[in-house]
Amino acid sequence: MALHEGTSFPVGKVDFIDLYPLNFQEFLLAIGEEKLVNILNEKNWDLINYIV
Hints:
Elements: H1 24-30, H2 34-42, H3 45-51
């Protein structure tokens, strides 16, 4: 949504949230893949290579 003159704006309560890019680990946590994050943090290469 553009915030400049000539563009409509939603009516009612509006919350502004600044979002920043996620790194891969943050993305995995956001989608509920905690087990995969733990495997990656443990650097269990045999298991990682098996999964890939």
